[in-house]
Design goal:
The complex is a heterodimer of chains A (about 270) and B (about 180). With about 270 residues, chain A is mostly beta strands. Chain A has a single domain, classed as Lipocalin. Chain A contains three helices and 15 strands. In chain A, strands 1, 2, 3, 4, 5, 7, 8, 9, 11, 12, 13, 14 and 15 form a 13-stranded antiparallel β-sheet that branches. In chain A, strands 6-10 form a two-stranded antiparallel ribbon. The longest helix of chain A has 19 residues. The radius of gyration of chain A is 26 Å and the shape is extended. By secondary structure, chain B is mainly α. Chain B contains eight helices and no strands. In chain B, helix 2 runs antiparallel to helix 3 and helix 3 crosses helix 8. The radius of gyration of chain B is 19 Å and the shape is globular. Chain B starts with a helix and ends with a helix. The chains are: A mainly beta (about 270), B mainly alpha (about 180). Chains A and B meet through helix 1 of A and helix 1, helix 2, helix 7 and helix 8 of B.
Chain lengths: ~270, ~180
């Protein structure tokens, strides 16, 4: 008689399984018993509410974007395989740019008011963020790349000094559609629409893709420097990735996925 | 919750699919008896085992796709799946539909023993442990029971489909 015959193995398996059933019996009916591995995350969120209002200087209830200390950064793997290519957009804002506002503005400051946002720390359903960047304002620190392959590869136009170009050819914008608590951190899970014409040239057609990202909140703190009046600051960090091929980008210098990190600082001065 | 807990739950999830297969396999083979004495029906039942196992693999793939929806990027997959090698091993079961592999049902048995091993390991730890804590083994047994039921259901589905196909083919032949 073979030791490893099917019947012997079956008997062995039934014995092992049977013993396991008996050994595991706790006389309880629960389905999956929670076991203690690491302590579960417990969120610690406050009740801060930050709104832009009409950006009245000196009104401490109205929060202003501190653009000089904010940034929109991008990164992707060089040629899709090597180390990171990184850069930032010099011009960006928190405004829901509607079709009628997609034009050029002769100014060196913000062309549109940074008022298309609201943040409720404990009510993410009320929070929303709308923003934009000017594609030709990508700054990698290499002028040859910024004015060269960035302009041609991203299907945009060269910078005109003293002009803020919010035309469809040069505009990428985001609009949050849903913000929820992140169960694993104090942050939030953000569903947003990314709209950009990408490399689609003629006619220029804005493409919108839905993306999931993560929002972090740096809580409000009071700061004071020297004898100047104290004021409050807070920060928001939004991170998301998108596939540039979905927007028709064909450049092989960059990977399919581009990571975006928006670091926005606000004050109530 | 930390990654450890997610990793543990994902291990239970994959065990729920595959760990019950060895028992089903041995029951069917024991029922079929000695190879030289098997009837055609019994041979057919044995030949259906790899297909049932492949169906389990497809169901597991479906669950993973559902869990990952709507973001199927590599980044999301790597961050969401805590036991990539185990998940990859589980997904290999789909290859049991390939004729070269499904001619040898024992390959599926060897494949599924990896998942049965976790049950044995936890049982061994329970035996040598002085702790009265039985939660891990209880969880294993819960998903093992589910897995046995799932594997029986998958095998029954494949058997029904196969015998339906045979009867339809028979009728079609007799008409023509």
């Amino acid at each position: 008689m073979k030791l490893l015959s099917n019947k012997n193995l079956l008997i062995l398996m039934i014995l092992v399984s049977g013993y396991a059933y008996i050994a595991s019996c706790t006389r309880n009916d629960s389905l999956i018993v929670p076991i203690q591995l690491t302590k579960p995350f417990v969120a610690t969120r406050g009740t801060n509410v930050h709104l832009p209002g009409s950006l009245t200087a000196g009104n401490t209830a109205e929060w202003k974007v501190d653009k000089a200390h904010s940034s929109v950064l991008w990164s992707t793997n060089y040629v899709g395989a090597a180390g990171l290519l990184t850069g930032r957009f010099n011009q960006f804002g928190l405004h829901n740019v509607i079709d009628a506002e997609m034009t050029s503005y002769t100014t060196t400051g913000q062309p549109l008011k940074d008022t298309s946002w609201a943040f409720y720390e404990n009510e993410p359903g009320k929070t929303y963020l709308n923003g934009y960047v000017q594609i030709n304002q990508s700054n990698t620190g290499e002028p040859g790349r910024d004015a060269g392959c960035n302009v041609t590869g991203m299907g945009t136009v060269a910078i005109v000094p003293g002009t803020q170009n919010l035309n469809p050819v040069n505009l990428a914008k985001i609009k949050t559609t849903k913000i929820e608590f992140d169960p694993a951190s104090n942050g939030y899970i953000v569903t947003l629409d990314l709209t950009w014409h990408g490399y689609v040239q003629s006619p220029i057609t804005m493409i919108t893709k839905t993306i999931v990202g993560k929002l972090s909140y740096v809580p409000k703190k009071r700061v004071q420097f020297g004898t100047a009046a104290a004021y409050d600051v807070f920060g928001l960090q939004l991170k998301f990735s998108f596939n540039c091929r979905e927007f028709g980008i064909i450049s092989t210098s960059i990977a399919d996925n581009i990571d975006i990190e928006c670091n926005m600082n606000f004050n109530n001065k | 919750m930390g990654n450890e807990m997610i990793s543990y739950l994902q291990r239970l999830e994959i065990m729920a699919f595959f760990s019950g297969y060895p028992l089903l396999y041995l029951v069917i083979l024991s029922y079929a008896g000695k190879e030289e004495l098997r009837t055609i029906t019994k041979k057919r039942l044995i030949s259906l085992l790899p297909f049932a196992y492949g169906l389990i693999g497809i169901l597991y793939l479906g669950l993973q796709l559902r869990n990952l929806y709507p973001d199927y990027s590599i980044r999301h997959i790597t961050s969401a799946i805590q036991n990539p090698f185990l998940a990859g091993w589980g997904l290999l079961s789909i290859f049991s539909f390939i004729p070269v592999l499904n001619k040898k049902p024992v390959i599926c048995l060897l494949h599924s023993l990896v998942f049965f091993y976790f049950l044995l390991k936890d049982l061994y730890i329970q035996i040598i442990s002085t702790s009265a804590e039985k939660s891990i083994l209880k969880n294993d047994i819960n998903v093992y029971s589910d897995s046995i039921l799932l594997n029986i259901a998958a095998f029954a589905i494949m058997a029904i489909l196969y015998f339906l196909f045979l009867s339809v083919r028979k009728k079609t032949k007799s008409i023509s």
